[in-house]
Write a structure and sequence with these properties.
With 158 residues, this protein is an alpha/beta fold. The chain contains five helices and four strands. It starts with 11 loop residues before the first helix and ends in a 5-residue tail after the last helix.
Length: 158
């Protein structure tokens, strides 16, 4: 796609999440907001920038009913404006992650993890936050080996 903006039927982060699910057998939960983001990428990034400026906490549509039963949480998100979307902040502030392991991963178009790992550690000070994986959005369909190697390095798969 050579740097052009494409509206995707399945988002880049979801593509990586499904690869992780296949490799680990994990359950999947999608963080969705009550107020949907625009379908247009540029409009979405404008909304995201405004949410970040306001330090907003968008309301989520669902909760994880049995969060206490999970010891490890793979946390995926697009990197919007050098960190995770504000809805992920809402998600992290909605649960007690004490004693849990959070494994972040993000999709981006050049900014890597940004400050998201630091932000997760700040929001969840009693959780163990492992080293995250950043996958360039245009590379998600070729990321199987990178995802596998990362999970092996973290000791999450063989």
């Amino acid at each position: 796609m050579g740097g052009s903006i494409v509206n995707l039927p399945i988002g880049n982060t979801e593509v990586i999440a499904k690869k992780i699910q296949e490799l680990t057998g994990s359950n999947m939960f999608q963080i969705k907001t009550v107020k949907s983001y625009p379908e247009d990428y540029t409009e979405t990034t404008n909304v995201a920038q405004e949410e970040k400026r306001k330090n907003a906490r968008p309301e989520l549509t669902e909760i994880v009913a049995d969060m206490a039963s999970y010891d490890v949480v793979y946390l995926g998100y697009p990197n919007w404006w050098a960190t995770m979307p504000m809805a992920v902040f809402t998600f992290l502030e909605s649960y007690d992650f004490s004693g849990k392991t959070i494994i972040p991963f993000c999709t981006h178009e050049g900014s890597g993890m940004g400050s998201s790992e630091h932000d997760i550690k700040r929001l969840c000070p009693n959780a163990k936050v492992l080293s995250g994986l950043a996958i360039k959005g245009s590379s998600v369909n070729k990321a199987q080996d990178s995802v596998s190697a990362w999970l092996r390095k973290l000791g999450m798969t063989e």
